[in-house]
Design goal:
By secondary structure, this protein is α+β, with helices and mostly antiparallel strands. It is built from ten helices and eleven strands. The strands form three sheets. Strands 6-7-8-11-10-9 form a six-stranded antiparallel beta barrel. A two-stranded antiparallel ribbon has the order 1-2. It is globular, with a radius of gyration of 23 Å.
């Protein structure tokens, strides 16, 4: 087993090295166009049955249009219409405006979240590759209204307009949806400046398609289990939660270290002045989503009020990548916004279960929570 794990880790390392040597194409060469269209033709042929099924499901869910057509900036900041499978309710873009879509906003259709998480909604963009508006690999195209409000003043952001936008992007695969535009621009610019290599780009496409396919299969199996098997054979209920939970099942791989301040404390390093911090409490994470974390502890937690607040240190031991079987430790910091006791058990050994509301202390902490703890990033 150790030998297998070593081979998987070595394979992942070799693929990363090949990807690091590749880059976005900065020209419109005939070789690039021929390679892109040949790969796209194969992908369209393979995914045709899936596309037909998705089209039928989208149409049946609310009777709205199957495809979404939205204005995007392309090469040289030229505007073009990009196609996707529709994941939002009709006219959602006009209501969202220049904001970025966040969980819980209520605009996603019943299968919209699934399509966005698996990136299957991007399949119709292969049509844009045939039309010449997009390349197979490149930075993701930007909405003009979002660019004007959020991206225009980011240093180096306009470098992406020197190449065609892509169906598959490095920042798209390696960061969750919540990653900031500044962070994504840095990742994309790194590859834009590299010398392009067609062979390495083909390897990257194959690598990406494998992981996208594995992600789609895994999420499909999870949906079937939750919506069909559990409903009809065990609990007979429908899970109405807006946010997907990540279960850690009380193992030592996920802990939450709580620090409560005293009423007279002032903020300092890691939230509060060390001299005025109550003894820290270690809890074990049962499950977690975008807004709440369920924990179990041996000690009762104090209530939050106007004179007491809390910060938390999330510590999770998990895999960094799908092919990497080694466990790594990830740490993120957040503020505790609410504490609600859900279950308490007394007897030989007292245990207390709480539902804690939380919010990351910064955009970078949000990125770490989404990527490494909630597993929202594909790679």
């Amino acid at each position: 087993m150790t030998g297998v794990r070593y081979k998987l880790s070595q394979l992942n390392h070799d693929i990363e090295q090949r990807m690091a040597a590749s880059g976005y194409q900065d020209n419109d060469s005939w070789l690039e166009c021929c390679v892109d269209r040949a790969i796209v033709a194969v992908i369209l042929l393979i995914t045709a049955p899936v596309s037909i099924i998705l089209a039928v499901l989208i149409k049946l869910q609310d009777g709205g249009p199957i495809f979404y057509k939205g204005l995007r900036y392309g090469l040289g900041k030229k505007e073009f219409n990009m196609y996707k499978f529709r994941t939002l309710v009709p006219d959602a873009e006009s209501k969202i405006g220049a904001r970025l879509l966040k969980p819980g906003m209520g605009f996603e259709t019943p299968i919209g979240s699934f399509l966005r998480d698996t990136r299957l909604d991007e399949l119709p963009q292969l049509i844009n590759v045939f039309k010449g508006d997009m390349a197979l690999i490149g930075p993701r195209p930007e909405r003009p209204v979002v660019y004007e409000k959020m991206c225009r003043d980011i240093p180096g952001y306009d470098l992406r307009f020197k190449v065609k936008p892509g169906v598959i992007g490095y920042s798209q695969l390696f960061t969750p949806h919540s990653a900031s535009k500044r962070m994504r621009a840095k990742i994309d610019n790194f590859y834009i400046k590299r010398s392009p290599n067609v062979n390495n780009n083909i390897i990257f496409v194959i690598y990406s398609m494998i992981f996208l396919g594995l992600s789609a299969i895994k999420k499909t199996a999870l949906v079937v289990y939750k919506k069909v098997a559990i409903y009809y054979s065990v609990y007979r209920f429908t899970d109405l939660r807006q946010f997907t939970r990540v279960k850690y099942l009380l193992s030592y791989q996920a802990r939450l270290l709580l620090s409560f301040n005293r009423p007279d404390s002032k903020e300092g390093r890691f939230g509060y002045n060390e001299q005025s911090v109550d003894p820290r409490v270690t809890t074990f994470i049962f499950d977690i989503n975008d807004k709440f974390v369920s924990v179990i502890t041996d000690y009762p937690l104090p209530e939050l009020n106007s004179g007491r607040s809390a910060v938390a240190k999330l510590i999770v031991h998990a895999q960094a990548r799908m092919l990497d079987r080694r466990k790594k430790r990830f740490i993120a910091f957040c503020r505790i916004t609410s504490i609600k006791e859900s279950v308490s058990r007394t007897g030989y050994h007292n245990t207390y279960r709480y539902l804690l509301g939380y919010e990351p202390t910064s955009a970078y902490q949000q990125y770490k929570i989404d990527k490494y703890i909630l597993n929202k990033s594909i790679l």
